[in-house]
Amino acid sequence: xxxxxxxxxxxxxxxxxxxxxxxxxxxxxxxxxxxxxxxxxxxxxxxxxxxxxxxxxxxxxxxxxxxxxxxxxxxxxxxxxxxxxxxxxxxxxxxxxxxxxxxxxxxxxxxxxxxxxxxxxxxxxxxxxxxxxxxxxxxxxxxxxxxxxxxxxxxxxxxxxxxxxxxxxxxxxxxxxxxxxxxxxxxxxxxxxxxxxxxxxxxxxxxxxxxxxxxxxxxxxxxxxxx
Length: 227
Fold this sequence. Notes:
The protein is α/β, with parallel strands linked by helices. It has helices spanning 13-16, 18-29, 46-54, 69-75, 82-94, 115-124, 141-152, 157-167, 186-202, 218-221, and strands spanning 33-37, 58-63, 99-106, 129-134. Strands 1-2-3-4 form a four-stranded parallel beta sheet. The protein is globular, with a radius of gyration of 19 Å.
């Protein structure tokens, strides 16, 4: 997976091309790979991505949290614009590259109202699926978020915090496996129902193809030589 903890297409990738070199190795050895990014720089590697997708070795996840450029600037400053992200979904899809859109995180009273229009938009552009997570604020992040939301959204900060707590058993923090990503309680159920409806309306006949794990070149890779 490129990458679970940070974006593999950060600006420095323009210079270093580390991600591109990794993709070359994966293609050479026919190794499946998933990519998570919110940056249009992924299109630079379209030549390699098309070859991986042709072999069913690629799934791309594009992170889009909102259709509003104003909201994007508040939540994700210095990242690729919404227009460029939507264009990226369209271009990848037109090149037969399977795209899943990640609406992550859902933040109550900030972007939860956009679920249906966002899913419709990305489906129209060719995305094959959508996924989401509900915001959770573990450890010191909770205090940082509180200060940020009180400064940024003073008119609804209390509402935002209370609805997040409603998703996590009365706290901002959630670390339980299988619960932490989707939350629980009435508000979390409403979010889940909206995504269920959105998939039914706009993604009914679409699926992400499974990886082909049968063509990995285990002999050329010679992984046992590492031990």
